[in-house]
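seq as requested:
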Amino acid sequence: MGIYHFFAIGIILFSIGLIGFILRNNVIIILMSVELMLNAVNLLFVAFSRYLYANPDGQIYVFIIMTVAAAEVAVGLAIIVALYRRFATLDVSKINQLKG
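struct tokens:
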């Protein structure tokens, strides 16, 4: 497998995540779409690190992104639980009372 295969898979995964982020209204699906986009970027970082530069810089970025993604999931799930307790729904279009 060459770098073009990894690049194609990364672009496909990122596109699926972006489409899910834009078109869905469920907060959990949106959070999963963001995770899918982050994992697609991780795949591209590792592929470029391995094939183009042959140094571990891209893999170090992957660990940083994974740490940020784990923190994002923890905070995101806490916000989702708070929203569900307050509004009894996870539909983003129905939660319009957050406008301050």
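The radius of gyration is 17 Å.
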